[in-house]
Amino acid sequence: MTDFTNKIKILGAFYSNYKENEELQEFFEFNDVGMPLAYLAGEGLCEVSNDGKKYIAESWDILLAFLGIEDIGFNDLEEFLSMANMEEE
């Protein structure tokens, strides 16, 4: 299972790299709080409250389901994308 710090790092990088991807727009619209929050937290621009942690965790779970992958304990975006058969943009 991926630890929370890595979830923030991966979600933030995914958001930064793919937020303009038309194929993922529905995902980003639905996760309009969790994904930007993960990005801001990953960049050290905010502290995440308990409610914020719930949004980030929900976005993580939805992204895994959306891409059809299992949480095997990811360390970074490259490893995550490899499992999802995606390349970094």
Structure commentary:
There is one protein chain. The protein has 89 residues and is mainly alpha-helical. It has one domain (4-83). Helix content is 62%, strand content 0%. It is built from five helices and no strands. The chain has helices at residues 4-18, 25-30, 34-42, 50-67, 77-83. Helix 1 crosses helix 3. The radius of gyration is 12 Å and the shape is globular. It starts with a helix and ends in a 6-residue tail after the last helix. The mean pLDDT is 93.
Write the layout of secondary structure elements.
Elements: H1 4-18, H2 25-30, H3 34-42, H4 50-67, H5 77-83
Helix pairs in contact: 1-3, 1-4, 3-4
Provide tags for this entry:
89 residues, mainly alpha
Beta strand count: 0
* N to C succession of SSEs: HHHHH
Give a quick account of the main beta sheet: strands, pairing sense, barrel closure.
Answer: none
Helix content: 55-70%
Termini gap:
25 Å
Compute the CA-based radius of gyration: 12 Å
Oligomer: single chain
The chain-level structural class is mainly alpha
Q: How many domains, in number, for the residues? A: 1
Q: How many separate helices?
A: 5
The gross shape turns out to be: globular
Poorly predicted tracts of residues: none
Strand content: under 5%
Average pLDDT value? 93
Short synopsis of the structure:
This protein has 89 residues and is mostly helical.
